[in-house]
Write a structure and sequence with these properties.
This protein has a single domain, classed as Sandwich (Jelly Rolls), CATH 2.60.120.10. By secondary structure, it is of the alpha+beta class. It is built from four helices and twelve strands, in the order E-E-H-E-H-H-E-H-E-E-E-E-E-E-E-E. Strands 2-1-8-7-10 form a five-stranded antiparallel β-sheet.
Length: about 170
Amino acid sequence: MATLNILEEHRKLTDSAEIKAYLYNIGITYEQWQLSYLVTKDSTSDEILNAYASKIEATKQAGGYITADVIDIDADTPNLDAMLAKFRREHWHDEDEVRFIIEGHGVFYINPQTSPVVSVEVATGDLLVVPKGTLHWFDLCSDRRIRAIRLFQDSSGWMPHYTVCIA
C-alpha cells in the first residue's frame, strides 16, 4: 500500500482512501488492484500480463492505452545507477505514465505546481497514473527492487522532457 508525504507540510498519509482523494485533487490517479497472481522470480512478463489481462484491458479502454509491458529492475540491473540518475531528474512526458506495482517499492515525486510537492511511495498492488505534462521524478527505495506493468498510449511518447538541462 502507498504512503503519501506532503513534504512542505511534513504530513504523511497512509490511509488509501485519503491518499486517493488527495492525489485526485492534484490530478493523479491512484488505485489499489487486487492481486490476482502470485508473482515469483521465475514469472515471465507474458504470464504476468496474462494474469492481469482483464484489468489491463479495462485500463486501456479507459485511458486510450494501446500496449502494456513489464519492467523488472533490481540491484543487479546493468547500469542501474545511470538509469536512476535519469529518473531522478524532474521531467514530464507527452503521455501518461501508468504503473501497476507487482513487486518492490519506488517513490514518485510529483510537482503539481499548484500545490506542494508530494512523494508517493508505491508498493505491491498500487496503480499510479501520472498524467502527461505533469512534472515528476522517480527513485527506487532501499530494496532497489521494482517490477511493474506499464501501459502506453504510444511508446514513442514516453520520452522524458527534462525541466533543467545539464551540459
